[in-house]
């Protein structure tokens, strides 16, 4: 059984609140990244005290209200499905705060965590604040929504991004990694992938491997699955006929995304 591939738990934790995924330092090999995905029925509420963690609350689908007991943001969320391919709203909440999410409609909400002990202001990251990028050429094209990039100083550790990859294309490709604390050449960042496909019966392939192949696992990833990337290269291949979405969360000792391409495949960039 894979330690990297996670399938939905879909556990009801209170009325109207379903825990879809729950990745923690206790149930995974990750130290810097924790992640929850929750589904909320209309009117349902989710309350959490953060302790020494910061959290980026992403309105994946549906509409929500978010408060940290001091400021409140209402009617967040811009889409009924991620495949509308428009940016969405998020809220950053720092450590030692309590936040509450209230569902205005049926909603899916990502809760992205990393360690933090320097309290920063709560911040709305509106859809309009998302930087939209088109990366790659040929069959290596993808569209990126930068929710919390390293150029935004709003967080202490968290990096959060959405990626859309079209039919027959590859992303996180050529294979790259960020598992060495060796700046300025490479940063150490753990990473999680939350995947969806359109149509929903689709799948993608994701390989996670290291140079010495002490880790080398290729997974068939279906709609709603997660992949954990503690170390190593981690390319994603999308079969013909399907579109891929994934939500990435990264964190490590230094909040810089500096990756290293697999030398065996870097030639592709020069072709």
From TrEMBL:
<comment type="pathway">
    <text>Polyol metabolism; myo-inositol degradation into acetyl-CoA; acetyl-CoA from myo-inositol: step 4/7.</text>
</comment>
<dbReference type="GO" id="GO:0102482">
    <property type="term" value="F:5-deoxy-D-glucuronate isomerase activity"/>
</dbReference>
<dbReference type="InterPro" id="IPR024203">
    <property type="entry name" value="Deoxy-glucuronate_isom_IolB"/>
</dbReference>
<dbReference type="InterPro" id="IPR014710">
    <property type="entry name" value="RmlC-like_jellyroll"/>
</dbReference>
<dbReference type="GO" id="GO:0019310">
    <property type="term" value="P:inositol catabolic process"/>
</dbReference>
<dbReference type="InterPro" id="IPR021120">
    <property type="entry name" value="KduI/IolB_isomerase"/>
</dbReference>
<keyword id="KW-0413">Isomerase</keyword>
<dbReference type="InterPro" id="IPR023770">
    <property type="entry name" value="IolB_Bacilli"/>
</dbReference>
<dbReference type="InterPro" id="IPR011051">
    <property type="entry name" value="RmlC_Cupin_sf"/>
</dbReference>
<dbReference type="GO" id="GO:0008880">
    <property type="term" value="F:glucuronate isomerase activity"/>
</dbReference>
<protein>
    <recommendedName>
        <fullName>5-deoxy-glucuronate isomerase</fullName>
        <ecNumber>5.3.1.30</ecNumber>
    </recommendedName>
</protein>
<comment type="function">
    <text>Involved in the isomerization of 5-deoxy-glucuronate (5DG) to 5-dehydro-2-deoxy-D-gluconate (DKG or 2-deoxy-5-keto-D-gluconate).</text>
</comment>
<comment type="similarity">
    <text>Belongs to the isomerase IolB family.</text>
</comment>
<dbReference type="Pfam" id="PF04962">
    <property type="entry name" value="KduI"/>
</dbReference>
């Amino acid at each position: 059984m894979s330690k990297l591939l996670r399938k939905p738990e879909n556990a009801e934790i209170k009325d109207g609140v379903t825990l879809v995924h729950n990745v923690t330092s206790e149930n995974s090999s990750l130290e810097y990244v924790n992640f929850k995905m929750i589904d909320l029925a209309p009117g349902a509420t989710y309350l959490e005290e953060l302790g020494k963690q910061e959290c980026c609350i992403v309105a994946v689908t549906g509409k929500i209200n978010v408060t940290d007991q001091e400021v409140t943001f209402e009617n967040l969320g811009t889409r009924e499905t991620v495949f509308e391919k428009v940016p969405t709203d998020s809220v950053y909440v720092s450590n030692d705060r309590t936040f509450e999410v209230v569902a205005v409609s049926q909603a899916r909400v990502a809760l992205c965590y990393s360690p933090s002990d320097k309290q920063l202001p709560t911040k709305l990251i509106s859809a309009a604040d998302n930087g939209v990028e088109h990366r790659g050429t040929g069959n290596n094209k993808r569209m990126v929504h930068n929710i919390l990039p390293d150029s935004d100083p709003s967080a202490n550790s968290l990096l959060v991004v959405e990626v859309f990859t079209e039919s027959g294309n590859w992303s996180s490709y050529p294979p790259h990694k960020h598992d060495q604390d060796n700046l300025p050449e490479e940063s150490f960042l753990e990473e999680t992938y939350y995947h969806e496909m359109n149509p929903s019966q689709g799948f993608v392939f994701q390989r996670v491997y290291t140079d010495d192949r002490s880790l080398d696992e290729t997974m068939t990833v279906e709609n709603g699955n997660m992949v954990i990337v503690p170390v190593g290269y981690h390319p994603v291949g999308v079969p013909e006929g399907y579109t891929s979405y994934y939500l990435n969360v990264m964190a490590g000792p230094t909040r810089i995304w500096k990756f290293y391409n697999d030398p065996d495949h870097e030639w592709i960039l020069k072709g």
